[in-house]
Amino acid sequence: MDAAFSEEQAGIRAALRELLLKRCGVAEVRAAVLTPAGHDEGLWRQLAERLGLAGLAVEQRYGGVGCGPTELALAGEETGRALLPSPLLATTALATPLIASLGTTEQRAELLPRLASGELTAALALPGAPLPVALGLVGPEGAAPPVGGRAGGVQARRTPDGWRLYGEAGQVLDGHSAGLLIVAAHTGGYVDGRALLFLVRPAEARGVVRARLTVMDETRPQARVQLRDVRAELLGARERDAWGVLAALGGPVAAVLAAEAVGVADAALERTVGYARVREQFGRPIGSFQAVKHRLADLHVAVQGARSAAYYAAWAAGGGQPPSGAAAVGGLALAQALETAWTVTGEAIQLHGGIGVTWEHDVQLYFKRAASDALLFGPVHRLRARAAEAAGLFAVTDEREAVVL
């Protein structure tokens, strides 16, 4: 593994950071989350047109850049630093790879150019299971199917004119504004029951009801999506179980999420160091006190370690390891990054003193992102437990005992 970034990768980072510094300050972020879309649509189109951000993972023949998980992780770190509200995760990291890998020739030709240009955004609706469970990053609690049983989640039934969906999905990332929904739905009976993926175009389909949810972190909008006998199109030419398909995305998505969390932690630490240099106590900056220096040094080491883990996970997802191994590595990297972001933003609140917890201060935005991500994509201990299980770290000798190999 070559740990150095290529010239092209360094250029992607530099160009994205420069544009976000100009167009995505904290004031712009606060304004963007209040818009109906939950993000600055003009900025997203600009990022797509000038930097190819929306099409990073799309092949060049469909108008994309043709990059891999490392470039997506680089973009994730920079957008995390800026707390950019954007469709990067829901559209670029989740929905686009599913269409590219499963879609028919017609579906890819129709949808991928529009996704790559930023004209179309997409969201993945997973009723019955949190995202990390569906991606195979944590083990499911209990035996419930990942998209609900025969009486829950979203149900699909075949009709003479195609497929119809009925049900509800909660906590759909960008689900309130996405122009395309990829819905996991249960079909079949007890014997041949399975989960399939369907395409739903809300602007064209009757019976789609979407409501934006009130969430802790407004920069990561979520929605509840209700489908009331909605016409849908099967994603792909044949019926493939959604569970296995989604699990193959675990490694790349975990790498992007880990890099995002690293960006959040790094930006919070940078702001805290700057504050420690100017905030005076007893006639001297608080950053000159040894105790504060040690705390900041520990946070710096934690951020660097999490960054190394995130980019190792991106390398593994890009072909350095098979999908199962990449998912285990990605889960560990995500656990470390989430834990680091939580620790760093919590320390940032404390070192800023009373102003750190006020609504008007910027540092609380980073704390909310870290806390929200830990709930959405963790918990950390289950990420690590799943990785240990995948690596065969523990062998169960009977029902009461487990030994370390």
UniProtKB/TrEMBL annotation:
What are the Acyl-CoA dehydrogenase/oxidase N-terminal domain coordinates in residue numbering? 6-119
A molecular function (GO) term: flavin adenine dinucleotide binding
| TM region(s), chain numbering | none
Keywords attached to this entry: FAD, Flavoprotein, Oxidoreductase
Q: Name one Pfam family in it.
A: Acyl-CoA_dh_N
Domain of life (superkingdom):
Bacteria
Enumerate the spans annotated as Acyl-CoA dehydrogenase/oxidase C-terminal domain.
256-390
Which cofactors are named for this entry?
FAD
The record's SUPFAM superfamilies line, in alphabetical order, gives: Acyl-CoA dehydrogenase C-terminal domain-like, Acyl-CoA dehydrogenase NM domain-like
Please give the family membership noted in the entry. Answer: Belongs to the acyl-CoA dehydrogenase family.
Q: What is this protein called?
A: Acyl-CoA dehydrogenase
Annotated organism of origin: Streptomyces cinnamoneus (Streptoverticillium cinnamoneum)
